[in-house]
């Protein structure tokens, strides 16, 4: 068995951040203390100066290949990127309760000038020096089998395989493909439940996501709280075939969410020709909105109601991305970690860690249906993690009409 607990904070660690104190004193000290952790990776990012404006005061951050500097600026004219935010958002960023991806998804990002990717590059630098984590460098992640030999990443397991082999693969690669977990007949019953439940959802109900297709149709693409609409799905939550996945770690993972949230299962339909709204999500980590250091890693489990491949919207993952500090909203051209396709048959299950970069390809020939559920670790905070109310609003409300900037290719 393995542990995937990467948490370094609890609610007691959250503190109010004064912008002047942070940029004039705290951040320069963190740069001095942790340059060795951030500089090697920063050299691979080709960082350009960024101007950060908080409530009218501007600071410029720069990197000369060896040293980081931060200082007040009269204006933002000399910086390639100009990011404007308020003191509350700065506190959220420093405390890791929200990120630029979270601000963008919630409609609160004020990026005056510059590419969004450059903002994410600087964000991982800040996380490196604030949290004391090494920034990713080429060759820093290797994949080994239990005997020390190279790990084959294109591998599928079955529930009856050695759980230590399955767990080791999950810890190394950050994902799993489990074949034949459920029968096609079980998936047909759940698919029929999806058809019956669709009438119970409507745009703006805060329980569903909708997308417009190229023929002008407004399609229901995500049904939340689906366990309340499908007896077969509710029964599946306690099925040992599913629960055995939670036992792959020593972290006490279980089907539960922080606080009173009862959205345990989401039923997704991936239609063809989406032109507006979010159906097929581009590269991201599930912790990209915030609270990585309070909650990761949870296990995200996808149950293939229909099969998936390159023609029908399969899942893709970046192997090993959970083990290193990289951007959470796109994949850089020079990232050396392998991108793995996960084609599935009906009844197969995929698992990825919340820190694993992943995306779903838009279907081009036929629709796909899939259920998603999460296994999370018991809270160390006695309830909600910091920022949980804000993150719940972002996850369950705003994403229906917000799309991410295109990834740099």
Question: Care to describe what's here?
Answer:
- The chain is 27% helix and 20% strand.
- The protein is globular, with a radius of gyration of 21 Å.
- The chain is α+β, with helices and mostly antiparallel strands.
- An 8-stranded antiparallel β-sheet has the order 6-14-11-16-9-8-7-10. A 5-stranded mixed β-sheet has the order 3-2-1-4-5. It has a 3-stranded antiparallel β-sheet with strand order 13-12-15, with no helix packed on it.
- It has helices spanning 19-45, 87-95, 100-105, 116-131, 163-173, 184-197, 231-236, 240-246, 292-295, 388-396; strands spanning 50-54, 57-63, 68-73, 81-85, 110-113, 175-178, 208-213, 218-223, 265-270, 274-276, 299-304, 315-318, 339-342, 349-353, 358-360, 368-375.
- It is built from 10 helices and 16 strands.
